[in-house]
Amino acid sequence: MTRREPDPRDLRPRGAGGSNRQVLRIPALGKNWAQPVCEGVAEQQLRADIGHFPGTEEPGQIGDFALAGHRSGVATPAFEGIDRIKTGPTITVTTGNRIAYTNTVTKITNVAPTKTDVIAQVPGRPHAAPTGAKLTLITCWPATGRSRRAVVEADLASSHEGTG
Q1: In the CATH scheme, what is the code of domain 8-161?
Q2: pTM of the full structure
Q3: Which of 52, 41, 49 shows the shortest CA–CA distance to 16?
């Protein structure tokens, strides 16, 4: 699926998803795959964009920057191809002030929908103190069901200022 390349300078309120905050890039989902990230994970946000779980960290901060998205059931599901993500490749988040945070995928799991500790400061360990910056992606599993959740974890590898 080809997505419009969002410009991180254009992170202003738009449509149903609300205010765009960052741009997520996942090369494993396509060479030019990019998707805006909005604040919140209510149906309003997830029907339009990828949503940032309120209460989790921002990109590059110590702790977990947790995101959710649909993989089916909407016109253009953000995480439709999540099965193509493997451990090792990178995922980049670019902020509105053009700082790009590159994260390396370290773990892919499949959990019950009730296992909410996957968005803890240290995913899966809700009482542990974080020592590094993480990125967590969450979506439904299987693609057409809701019985499980696919969880992709990535560790911050680098950050740099750029053009987006």
Answers
A1: 2.40.260.10
A2: 0.86
A3: 49
